[in-house]
Amino acid sequence: MAMAMRLLVVVNIVASLAAVASAIAGTATYYTTYVPSACYGYSDQGVMIGAASDSLWENGAACGRMYTVRCTGPTNQGVPHPCSGNSATIKIVDRCPAPGCQGTIDLSQEAFSMISVLAASKIYIEYTP
Question: How large is the average pLDDT for residues 90-112?
Answer without folding.
Answer: 95
